[in-house]
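Re: the request from the purification team.
They wanted to know what the chain is likely to look like in 3D before they choose a buffer screen. I agreed to run a prediction and write the result into the notebook, where they can find it.
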Amino acid sequence: MIACNPISKIAIFNAFIPILGVIFSVIILGEPMKLKYFVAGMLVALGVYVINKFDGK
């Protein structure tokens, strides 16, 4: 993946690691999904979208 894409395009997806951790803990462990976690996840996803959409190219 790194050989075909610049690292600047791939590195931002590391922001999804905590989001996926929360989602999997809700699904697998039955943790309660709080509104603040959902809002935080949406803000991170929006940030990834904005960075990829408006990266200056």
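For the purification team: The CA atoms of residues 22 and 28 lie 10 Å apart.
Please add any questions underneath this entry.
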